[in-house]
Amino acid sequence: MNHDDLNHWSKRAADWARDYHAGLRDRPVRPAITPGEIAAKLPQKAPEAPEPMERIFADFERIVPDGMTHWQHPRFFAYFPANAAPASMLAEQLANAIAAQGMLWQTAPAATEIEEVMVRWLAGALGLPARFSGTIHDSATVATLSAVLAMREAALDWAGNAEGLAGQPKLTLYASDQTHSSIDKAARIAGIGDAGLVKVDTDANLSMRPEALAAAIEADRAAGHLPIGVILAVGGTSVGGTDRIADCLAVAKAAGLPTHVDAAWAGSAMICPEFRHIWAGVEGADSIVFNPHKWLGAQFDCAVQFLADPSDQIRTLGLKPAFLTTPEADAPTDFNDWTVPLGRRFRALKLWFVMRAYGLEGLRARIRNHVAWAGDLAGEIADMPGLEIVTAPMLSLFTFAAESDEETARLIAEINAEGHVYLTQTVHAGRVAIRMQVGQFDCTREDVMAVAEVLRRHRAGRARREAG
Question: Which of the chain's ends, N or C, has fewer CB atoms near its CB within 10 Å?
Answer without folding.
Answer: C
